[in-house]
Design a protein that fits this description.
Layout lengths: L2 E5 L2 E3 L4 E2 L2 E6 L4 E6 L7 E3 L3 E4 L1 E6 L16 H10 L5 H17 L2 E8 L5 H4 L5 E8 L7 H19 L6 E5 L7 H10 L4 E6 L3 H9 L4 H7 L14 H5 L8 E6 L5 H9 L6 E6 L1 H7 L6 H6 L3 E4 L12 H11 L5 H8 L1 H6 L17 E4 L6 E3 L2
Parallel strand pairs: 1-6, 2-7, 8-9, 9-10, 10-11, 12-13, 13-14, 14-15
Antiparallel strand pairs: 1-4, 2-3, 4-5, 7-16, 16-17
């Protein structure tokens, strides 16, 4: 069996940066060893830049790729949601081509695995090419309690399509709630009781409107429900944040990826800490370019770091982003939070993401036996080349 040997100015293992080291893989990209440069022998390929495992995109909406460039930036949360819902139905060929193009872009941008939100089975044909690893989060929505059964069965039909395609024993499909403002308590119950692998994701505290609605019942979300023709006279806010309102609806021991977290406060993080025994595996996914695109602002990342939460990276969709690139997300974080060490951000984008999707046995770090992909990054994060 032949081997390939790579070295660069720095080698990021998934856990930290090393210098003067050589990464050794077999011809198929399986990691064999990391050796000191003096022990690696000949035929070492040397590069300028940083060697890194492939990126994990922990939150994406691949099925919305046909909306690229359709929704102008900075429309605000309510207008954005209404436009997405109104533009879902376009010619099938256009949707499928956009999905294929977006996946190619992710591949070229060094992404090896994706946590993908699915409200339809539109992405299934492309995913069967197996260019990237996907964990499919089949989303259920419905804020009116009376519709919980119908909404659950609609999502279940899509879940069954993905599960049938994956085959017996596959663990890469989950039924999940969309967001606190779009899932009723009975629907939450149906989703969490159904769980096959106890891995969830949920859009969390993405906008001020969401927080206002949960704390006081006022604000822009009333305009959203009115536009959708929904009678929400049953709803009575209890004065708590959306996260504190709904987090207790998950069962003890379940894993969850909370996405966006723009309005997550210290009070919320303390709330989670007090319940760590119930939800020991909670990851916070950042999608900074989407937050800026919609106009919601960025999360308080210094606060998240101070509480030492597990952070991962996502891109959201091409409806809310100019590209599907984890490197571009890291670049934005570097611009707004320059004090974050490079290796910390890279860990969010690699090993942390793999752990969040429960695929750390294959992806996320350069450890013997794994096939995480091998990327070459520019020092200033301006470019990425996929070596394996």
């Amino acid at each position: 069996m032949g081997y390939r040997k790579f070295t660069a100015d720095h080698l990021f293992t998934g856990n930290g940066l090393l210098d003067n080291q050589v990464l050794v893989t077999d011809e198929k990209g399986r990691i064999e060893a990391i050796l000191p440069a003096g022990e690696a022998g000949e035929d070492v390929q040397a590069f300028r830049g940083i060697l890194s495992p492939g990126f994990i995109n922990a939150h994406c909406h691949l099925e919305l790729s046909h909306l690229k460039g359709i929704i102008p930036p900075h429309t605000g949360m309510i207008n954005f949601l209404l436009t997405v819902m109104s533009r879902r139905f376009v010619p099938e060929q256009q949707v499928m081509q956009a999905i294929a193009d977006a996946e190619t872009a992710m591949f070229q941008n060094g992404i090896v695995a994706v946590g993908d939100i699915c409200n339809t089975a539109d992405t299934l044909p492309q995913k069967q090419h197996q260019r990237l690893y996907y964990h499919n989060f089949i989303e259920a929505t419905g804020f009116v309690p009376a519709t919980a059964g119908d909404r659950f069965h609609k999502a279940l039909t899509i879940w069954e399509q993905f599960s049938e395609a994956a085959g017996p024993g596959a663990k890469n499909n989950s039924m999940v709630p969309h967001a606190p403002y779009s899932v009723s308590r009975p629907l939450f119950q149906l989703i969490t009781d159904f769980a096959e692998d106890d891995l969830f994701t949920m859009h969390n505290q993405e906008s001020r409107e969401e927080e206002e609605f949960f704390r006081t019942g006022t604000g822009g979300f009333n305009r959203l429900y009115e536009a959708l023709g929904l009678d929400i006279s049953f709803y009575k806010p209890d004065g708590k944040s959306s996260l504190q309102t709904c987090l207790g609806r998950f069962h003890a021991g379940e894993s969850i990826i909370l996405v966006h977290n723009v309005m997550t406060s210290e009070e919320d993080l303390q709330f989670i800490q007090r319940r760590q025994a119930l939800l020991p595996d909670c990851h916070f996914c950042l999608c900074p370019n989407a937050n800026l695109y919609i106009g919601n602002g960025l999360p308080d990342i210094d606060l998240l770091r101070r509480y030492e939460v597990a952070i991962v990276m996502g891109t959201d969709s091409l409806a809310s982003n100019h590209q599907l690139s984890i490197l571009a997300e890291l670049k934005t974080l570097q611009q707004h939070y320059p004090a974050i060490p490079l290796e910390e951000g890279l860990q969010w984008a690699t090993l942390n993401g793999a752990k969040a999707l429960n695929i750390q046995d294959r992806f996320g770090s350069f450890e013997k036996g794994k096939t995480p992909g091998v990327l070459l990054l520019e020092h200033d994060l301006s470019g990425v080349q996929r070596l394996l």
